[in-house]
From TrEMBL:
GO biological process, one term: DNA-templated DNA replication
EC number(s) recorded for this UniProt protein: 2.7.7.7
Domain DNA polymerase III delta subunit C-terminal: 204-317
Cited InterPro entries: DNA_pol_HolB (IPR004622), DNA_pol_III_delta_C (IPR015199), DNA_Rep/Repair_Clamp_Loader (IPR050238), P-loop_NTPase (IPR027417)
GO cellular-component term (any): DNA polymerase III complex
Pfam families assigned: DNA_pol3_delta2, DNApol3-delta_C
Annotated keywords: DNA replication, DNA-directed DNA polymerase, Nucleotidyltransferase, Transferase
SUPFAM superfamilies in the record: P-loop containing nucleoside triphosphate hydrolases
Native source organism of the sequence: Ruminiclostridium papyrosolvens DSM 2782
UniProt cross-references to NCBIfam families, sorted A to Z: holB (TIGR00678)
MF terms in GO: 3'-5' exonuclease activity; DNA binding; DNA-directed DNA polymerase activity
Catalytic activity: DNA(n) + a 2'-deoxyribonucleoside 5'-triphosphate = DNA(n+1) + diphosphate
Record's protein name: DNA polymerase III subunit delta'
Length: 322
């Protein structure tokens, strides 16, 4: 697993030294790799061989087939994880492992457990059988009761570096592509976001459309603002992404105006579009950036969607006609 080798090495050492905790909290942003790491750790615990996971023993084979009775996982399907889901998992704790040294229970998005669910889990954490290992993945451990946190070993998953994300993309898709600089910047250290963008032609096509709109807005001459609004309306469920694309365009414009260095551009594959508008004064670019932030704050405060977007588009256009 690229990006979290240090964590995996520490977990592997714990298994080798027979120093495995009975409960862990994996904490970090959604998509950063907590579940993947938890599954890799579980594969180590499932295997009884010296070189683990061996991939060939009965336990490993059942684990790969998702049929090992010593492994259980809760994946959040509703807004919260109910007490019934937790109780169903806990029922089998009294039965010793059939194929492995450990029974492993992964609770994804454990910060979505109801209070009743947390209380049910706490009883098992207070006096766990020696063969049980709980792994709770959370975005914020503050949403989990302190009584649970105090009984778990907390492992913090930081956002990955620019180069780590690039390596993950390369391992999945081969040679680097021109639009990866944008993808890595937008992902902000979260591998899951980078992979989602790389796999989705829609997101990259939407980026093309938004960049064309933004470039047209800052160019001299008239622009059909209401036609541009249609793009926002069609993608209102992705408006954060659209606004981020616009902000990165203006960021690149400022960087290029200051340095003249295209290698510093996030949208380096769109450098011609940046250079085309390099004559825009700094003060005008800053007004455009402010207009985007105003729209984002308005939408976060439940402002009228159409009004917020149309005002932003008009401010951007007006900034370049003054």
């Amino acid at each position: 697993m690229l990006g979290h080798q240090r964590i995996l090495s520490a977990l592997r050492a714990a298994v080798q030294k027979d120093n495995v905790s009975h409960a862990y909290i994996f904490e970090g942003p959604d998509g950063v790799g907590k579940r993947d790491t938890a599954l890799k750790f579980a594969s180590m615990l499932m295997c009884g061989e010296e070189q683990f996971p061996c991939g060939v023993c009965k336990s490993c084979q059942l684990y790969k087939e998702a049929s090992n009775p010593d492994f259980h996982e809760i994946i959040q399907k509703d807004k919260s994880i109910s007490v019934e889901e937790i109780r169903n998992i806990l029922k089998g704790l009294v039965i010793r492992p059939l194929y492995s040294k450990y029974k492993v229970i992964i609770i994804n998005d454990a910060d979505a457990m109801t209070i009743q669910a947390q209380n049910a889990l706490l009883k098992s954490l207070e006096e766990p059988p020696p063969y049980i290992v709980f792994i709770l993945t959370v975005q914020s451990s503050a949403a989990v009761a302190q009584t649970i946190r105090s009984r778990c070993q907390r492992i913090l998953f930081n956002r990955l570096s620019h180069e780590d994300i690039m390596e993950i993309l390369e391992s999945n898709y081969g040679l680097r592509k021109p639009d990866w600089e944008f993808i890595v910047s937008y992902a902000d250290g979260v591998a899951g976001t980078a992979l989602e963008l790389a796999e989705s032609s829609h997101y990259l096509e939407l980026r093309e459309e938004v960049l064309e709109i933004t470039s047209s807005l800052v160019a001299a001459g008239d622009a059909d603002l209401f036609k541009f609004y249609d793009t926002f309306e069609r993608n209102n469920d992705r408006v954060d992404y659209v606004l981020h694309v616009i902000l990165l365009y203006f960021r690149d414009l400022l960087i290029y105006k200051e340095t003249g260095d295209t290698s510093l551009l996030i949208n380096s594959d769109k450098k011609d579009m940046i250079i085309r508008n390099v004559g825009l004064p700094f003060s005008h670019v800053l007004k455009c950036i402010q207009a985007v932030w105003d729209a984002r704050r308005g939408l976060d405060s439940n402002a009228n969607f159409q009004l917020a977007i149309e005002v932003m588009l008009m401010k951007i256009k007006q900034a370049n006609n003054t």
